[in-house]
Amino acid sequence: MLGKCLCGQTVFELDLPKVRAYQCHCTLCRAQSGTSSNLGTIVPEAKFSWVSGRSHIKSWVKESGFTSDFCSNCGSPVPNMLRGMPYYWVPVGALIDAASVEVIAHLCTSSKATWDSIADNAVQYADLPDIKTFINELNAE
């Protein structure tokens, strides 16, 4: 499954038949995505590879440690390694063929925008769940 930034300079591949994703509704993710939530997934490092364009990636790191990697040409968010863990965060909107994406959870629903509504039956977490447990849920077969 291929993914790329808006201009196509940065291309990556996931070795997965399907993607289990989440939507995070926290204020940081809303600001980073420019919309009501950030649609992402977390995949094992062994299931992720860069195809091209790593030299185009720039990073911004918030004091809290939150990292945002993006294409230096078009500004699109691109995958980045989780700090201290063998996993990549992947922006699901960058996937070229997202037909096999399933949203399994909504995170930080207690801080979602007042104008935001959740219209599916995915599990809702008021805050962030335990990261290791949640990564296992995302990567369950």
TrEMBL record:
Signal peptide: none annotated. The keyword Zinc applies. Keywords: Lyase, Metal-binding, Zinc. Residues 1-116 form the CENP-V/GFA domain. InterPro entries: CENP-V/GFA, Mss4-like_sf. The keyword Metal-binding applies. GO terms for molecular function: carbon-sulfur lyase activity; metal ion binding. Pfam families: GFA. Belongs to the Gfa family. This is Aldehyde-activating protein. It comes from Nitrincola tibetensis.
